[in-house]
Amino acid sequence: MSEALSFSVEKRTGLGKGHARRLRRQDDKVPGVVYGGDQPTIYFSIDYRHVAKAIQAEAFYSQVLELVIGRKKERVVLRELQRNPASDKVLHIDFLRIREDRAINISVPIHYLNEDKCHGVRLQSGVISKNLTEIEVSCLPKNLPEFIPIDLENVELGTTIHLTDLELPEGVSIVSLTHGDMHDVLVVSVHLPRGGAVEEEEEEEQEEDIVEEEEPTPDEDES
To answer: Phi/psi at 114 (nearest 5 deg)?
Structure first.
């Protein structure tokens, strides 16, 4: 796990929609809250420019973060990011305080590796279909992976990869699989392009017809 992203925030005492609206409009700040971990809830604000930069980083959504509130540091994970439905601008941030001895559930991105070298694509004219881009995992904070890698280089045409096929770091489990085998969903597959199988069958049938037509009859052979 890489070093945690760190953000300096200011503790706020004003609450309510009116106060939050003034923070956003007059001070260009985003209100937020930190809760959980058997400690009191902390209300804070953070400069919007810091938020705008942070949300561009993949780790902001899937890794342990550090909030600096005065002289105190809080280790947290993102729980909710509220946005304006029209402008997509961030309106509010919720962080969950973590404890090192308690497992957390969090969605981690999938990184598909060596797509351009995939055997099923490069040598067998297949295409890659990705069904998932992230997976919710459960683990202690110290075991949280930055991403789940899936190497596609040696994957052949017709291969399907499900959740149970993934190799996970020690101490990491997939949340959905705890609910039974029916949740072992498809992650990625390599298959012929749409219509490819039909076209291939038609070509084979045409080749068989040509061979049959070229085979001489016994009478023709004798003559």
So the answer is: 60, 40
Token representation of residue 164? 């149970």
- Indicate the number of domains in the chain: 2
Residues 6+ apart with CB under 8 A from 21: none
The one-letter code for the residue type at 94 is: D
Name the residue among 197, 174, 198 with its Cα closest to residue 184: 174
DSSP secondary structure letter of residue 212 = H
Distance CA 172, CA 133 (A): 18
Tell me the CATH number at 183. Answer: 2.170.120.20
Residue 83, Cα to own-chain centre: how many angstroms? 20
Mean residue pLDDT across the chain? 86
Give the contacts of 82 (CB within 8 A, at least 6 positions apart): 90, 91, 92, 93, 94
In terms of DSSP bridges, do strands 90-97 and 29-35 run parallel, antiparallel, or are they unpaired?
parallel
* Mean pLDDT within 56-68: 95
Which residue range is the domain that position 12 belongs to? 5-97
Predicted structure pTM score:
0.79
Whether 110 and 91 map to the same domain: the answer is no
Q: 25: domain CATH number?
A: 2.40.240.10
Residue 25 tokens read as 């409009």
Mean pLDDT of 64-93: 93
Are both 108 and 134 inside the same structural domain? yes
